[in-house]
Amino acid sequence: MKKVSSKIILFSGILVLGSCAKERSPITAWEYNNPKNGGFEVIPYEEQETGPGLVLVQGGSFTMGRAEQDVTYDWNSIPRRVTVSSFYMDQTEVRNLDYLEYIHWTSRVFAANFYDVLKKAMPDTLVWRDRLAFNEPYVEYYLRHPAYRDYPVVGINWLQASDFCAWRTDRVNEFILIREGILDHTPTPTETDYFNTDQYLAGKWQGTVVTPLHSMSPDGGDRAVRMEDGIFLPRYRLPTEAEWEFAAYGLIGNTVGERITDRRLYPWNGHGTRNPDEKFLGQMMANYQRSNGDMMGTAGSLNDAGDVTTPVYSYWPNDYGLYNMAGNVSEWVMDTYRPLSAEDKADFRPFRGNVFKTQIRNEDGIVISDTIQYDNPTDTAHRNIVSIPGQVRWRDVSITVADDNLDERRNYKYADNINYLDGDVKTQAAGLSGAAWSEAYDPGTGKAESNGMYEYMVTSLINDKARVYKGGSWKDRAYWMVPGTRRFLDERQSTAWLGFRCAMTRVGSPTCLGKK
Question: How far apart are CA 248 and CA 320, in angstroms?
Fold first, then answer.
């Protein structure tokens, strides 16, 4: 017999005790957790569990944007005061070892029948190639050789980083259900039999149940875990630009009361890149390129000891306990790039890139899944997977779908809000988006890359696929290690100096109430 988790026993016991204690609603006076009056369940809950690899970043107000002179004269990072909610963030960049675990799992589940899914996840190791440098050893060894297992993964585009976050969400939530004795472990998952959080919550996949939760329904029986139970963790995701910048500064270390005593240029105090502490005097605080041709210093006295990247726990963490928020690799964030985002984005949790979606359901209200979907099925060379077996399919909300009720909403009127308040023709095109807007703006051309103001590949490289990345890398000068600087790259492209780390929303109290 399998050992039942003490938390499940406690969980079930609390339900019984709650019923015995006759806890009542202060609104209706009816008892909670009582099958005789409908069985409305109220589950004891303290606070969010900290997911593996994460640290809590307590939010607050800060001045986002330029803290250094604008040497590029882009004027794309205008200082502005905003507020960021508390959230969780990976202590380090995602490592090669972490990404290899993802590839291994994807290969086991999909390689046999859906090789395209595995191919989509594979990093581009050819990003190391340079026409006038001998970098072939990195092409062959950097991702897979154990010498580099603790180095940050590179060659990952924005789409792949987002997919990794989704995969990580499911694996962590699956582990929690197994740890709590609710589900049995599936040792050989397949494309039709693996855990997916959305599928589980939709009731389409329940796995092998070990200890079901007892339902308080008058009909009795057992039930699956629900969102209301507080067992599942929120989704892992990329941090927003505001979150990343806020976390990088680590200003919690310079706060006295409500005053920030010293504004930082880097994730540490001072204007230098060497450690002023007598114990570590003169040692580099981050991995970056000091000057022309100087990637790591002189033999016998290497300044940052990193020719390319360095292990993710190198150097000193900032005051949130985050490593390498300056140097090593630049990092993807969730935002779509616009030069004047600071002028348009909200004061609270600022972000540009919202495309509002909803789950696809049939006429009976059951979510649709279990088929592989491509954005362009006939063009096998350029098609992208938009839905894969075992995952719930989503669609953009639409003014033409009555159930979406967009005509009655005040806060948004259409799905794609990337260009909202951007002075763009798309914003003015009566809510049209995507291909429909392309035809409306330039009939007969179907220029999906163009959006009017930003003429992609003509006057700029900006379009709705341009994503922000933050921080300096091993190949950058110190200027880019200032968290307020920002750059962008097409979400489908990757480089040898660009990686990522995951974040997670903090639900409930912005402060940690307990020690766990």
Answer: 8
DSSP classification of residue 515: -
Q: For 407-454, what is each residue's pLDDT tens digit?
A: 888 899 889 889 888 865 554 454 444 444 444 444 433 344 444 567
Nearest CA-CA partner of 313 in 151, 161, 155, 168: 151
* Whether pLDDT at 382 is above 90: no
Calpha distance 47→278 (Å, rounded): 41
Spatial neighbors of 237 by CB under 8 A, at least 6 apart, are 162, 165, 334, 502, 503, 504, 505
Sign of the Cα torsion 74, 75, 79, 83 reads negative
Task: Give the position of tokens 């964030």.
Answer: 333
Answer for the pair 123, 160: CB distance below 8 angstroms, yes or no: yes
Give the three-state DSSP class for 247: helix
Q: What domains sit in the chain, N to C, each tagged with a CATH number?
A: 45-180+231-340+465-505 (3.90.1580.10), 354-417 (no CATH)
- For 107, the token pair is 């290969």
Q: pLDDT grade, residue 365 (50/70/90)?
A: confident
399 Cβ neighbours under 8 A, 6+ residues apart: 406, 407, 413, 414, 431
